[in-house]
Amino acid sequence: MSQAQESIANMLQLAMQWHQTGDLVKAEAAYRQILIQNPENADVLHLLGVLSSQAGRPDSAVELLLAALRIRPHQPAIFNDLAKTYRILGHWQAAREAFEVAIDLQPHFIDARNNLGALLHEHNDSESALRHLQKALELDANHLESHYNLGCVYLDQSQFKPAIQHFEQVLRQAPEHYGAHYNLANALKQVGDYTWAMEHYQRVIARMPETGSHTAQIFCSVANTYRDQAQMDAAMAYYQQAYQADPQAVYQILQATLLPPVYQSKQDLQQWRNRLEQSITTLAQQPPVFNDPYQAQLPTLFYLAYQGQNDRDLLIKMASVYRLSLPKTRVSEPVTDGRPRVGFVSHFFYDHSVSHYYGGLFGMLEAAGFEVHLFVLANTPRDQVTQSLCERVTASHTLPMDLSLARQEISAQALNLLIYTDIGMEAFSYFLAMTRLAPIQAVLAGHPSTSGIPTLDYYLSSQWFEPPEAAAHYSETLVRLNGMPADYQPPQPPPEAARADFGLSENDHVYLCPMMLYKVHPDFDHAVVGILQRDAQAVIVFYYSPATQLHRVLRERWAKQLTPEQGQRIQFWPWAERERFYQAILMSDVILDTFHFSGVNTALIVLGLGKVMLTWPSSFMRGRFCAGLYDYLGLKGAIAPTQDAYIDLACQLGTDAQVRLQVETEIQARSSALFSQQSGLQALSEWIREQVNV
User: pTM value?
Assistant: First the structure.
């Protein structure tokens, strides 16, 4: 080695030491000194490119890395660093191509596969992201960043259990990993494990700065967690902290629209509603504008539907506030030759009640001569139901979780009619529906409440369920189809289970209320208290999520109205798998429908199993499902005309086995008609045909 070469080698070693210890100024000066003597040194060009990127000069970094590649065109590490720099610049396609070259040159290049997986995830190609991240872990089962990025992909796909597993693996290797704590908390919250979610949120809070957008987002996540547990004071306090950390309008809106999942009393419910009405009126006077309402995590008013009142005007006002941030129309000229094109949008195209209820519709329309397009949100937890639904239609499309890209995808199909199966249960489809993407847009009753959105023209309901004055409940034009627009499959009876298997006595009169607890309106307290006071052998059973506090709020509410002995006869069971759930229905004496918000899927299961579901039809469609099914079957024995009569009828059915058997026998003789009726589907098919003029 010559003296000049030795000098360069020593300087390079010193420069790399400075680089590694973070002294970028000295390192850069040394690298440039070497390049003066040897401008074709690919290693130094590469290292100086990396340093330039680290120093916030990505454009300069690209030039240096490309210069290095001109000298060493087959060096995978340089391509990997070039791709990382393109990613910083937002040149995602160039970044992808450079990562792919690096992997082609070195198929076992773990970092490149991990980086490419993260990039693909950012740009909504989750399937390709999973493939590269899983391959990285095949090459190194302990690669920390691949575990983390894979957890993020699963989290965005709503596959919470594998997401949790990967984040927990990260924390086993790096217990202080900030992002893993935060995302693990988010995943735990989604599976109902609020206690552990809060533990991980608090670990993040202990390490984060006092202000900034990320700090505010974490405070907001904690606030949402407290809200879902009905701890409203804590939720409000954390929303306020979020605003103090980053004074953005979204945190004011979250405070303004805050609603509990369950209420302390009817008076408490009305106070929250009055507060909401005042807040939305104020927002409508000076509505804020957002670049992307979904990415801003603006709230929908999901819990409003469970208050038992006419929500139309409130939802219209809320939509008017949000629509200022969204384009009004992006309609492609629909196809006029060939089959009429009908699209359906939902997050819930998987093993979910929405798919159980509407799943038969898509294949029927396809067979009836329509071109059916299914738009599945990218964060849908795909399963066999998803696959089955997609196989029944002309085409299925995965909508990226980006409103602009999703609008482009739907508009490109040149639909004649676009139908949302549900609006209001999740935010993406709610905001997507605020832009006209087809000449005619409609919504089905997957979430049985009006949307308030002016770009939705029709609400597709059933005359079975709507009261005479129902048109006043909708911002859309109400369509009362003749029948139920569903092809629901009858439940398969499970193996028999004894009451002792559930910890109950044969002497107990079992009243099962298999509803989500946020459906338990304060008015339903009258029924709970009345049954327990009238029937000394009554045991009322509810299901709950073990990690939430909602059952405790309800216990406290009922404790004020019951004796301790009566309160002990209320049981909360953790939600069960399908077979166990069906067994619980079969061993119960009476199934209780909740006031103001009936359960159509639950009613179909209960009646399909031949059991009695007691119901009181309220003033709105969402409280009339079970009664509507009974009316169709010509059965009146389990419909209570008043709330007081509900108690009388519940106790009669619960205590008199002969009366109960008579009603069950009638249900068993007629319920099959619910699962063979095609009138609703045919009516919907005809309505669609009329709209598209074929």
Answer: 0.84
